[in-house]
Specification:
2 domains; single chain; elongated; 10 helices; alpha+beta; HTH_AraC; Jelly Rolls; Arc Repressor Mutant, subunit A; 260 residues; eight-stranded mixed beta sheet
Amino acid sequence: MKYFFEERSVAITEYISGDLDFGAHLHGEVEIGFAAEGSSRLCIEDRSYEIKAGDMFMVFPNMIHRYEHSEAIKAYVVIFSAALLPEYAGAFREMRPVSPVIHCGDTHIPALFEMFFSNGNMTYETKQGLILAIMGTAVSLTDLERQAGYGPGALKDILMYCERCYTDNITIETAASALHMSRSHISHIMRDKLNTTFCEYINMKRTDMACELLGKTSLSVTDTAFAAGFGSVRSFNRIFLKHTGCTPREYRRGKKCVQI
């Protein structure tokens, strides 16, 4: 499965969604939402949670998550910088909700979300106050558990390094040196969070790049292999076949391949 790191330049982002479905990603902000209608499914790392009308959902920073199987959904979504609520700095940094989907029942959460989205001219301070009120209620309705024992930004740093350097001649050793982490630490994080290895993740990134080059340019298979970061055409052919189910030449000819 593909993952990507999403960067934002504003402290608060809000939108109303008619289709929550979104691929696996992570970001350094907190994400909260309220399902006014319909249903969806929230997947956080290796856990899955059903979202139904009347539920609130929340994702803490740097947690891989995705949405799928949205049906007739109307969801109010707010993504905000963790620095916005210093009261929860420790929780955002070290903890995670045991149940990130909360049935709101008779709480004020639905009204708070409605208020948040009812005024397009709302001040930053008012938005901040409403977010604090929503989080205060939400945290009181669920337990928090401690996250894995490594820095919350470690996975983000690894993924961003991979994004910058996957076409270069990199190994887990060069990543460890660049990121000032041990090789075993990187291996543990990638296995724990992504259920993959550093080498497999880099090969997946290179294969994705090769697919783009084969489909959109006239580069030869050999040039495509080296442009995508592979060390030899032989390894390129082997890894490409493993990840797509077809050879690079078959892919270019338009054969329907299934990426694994």
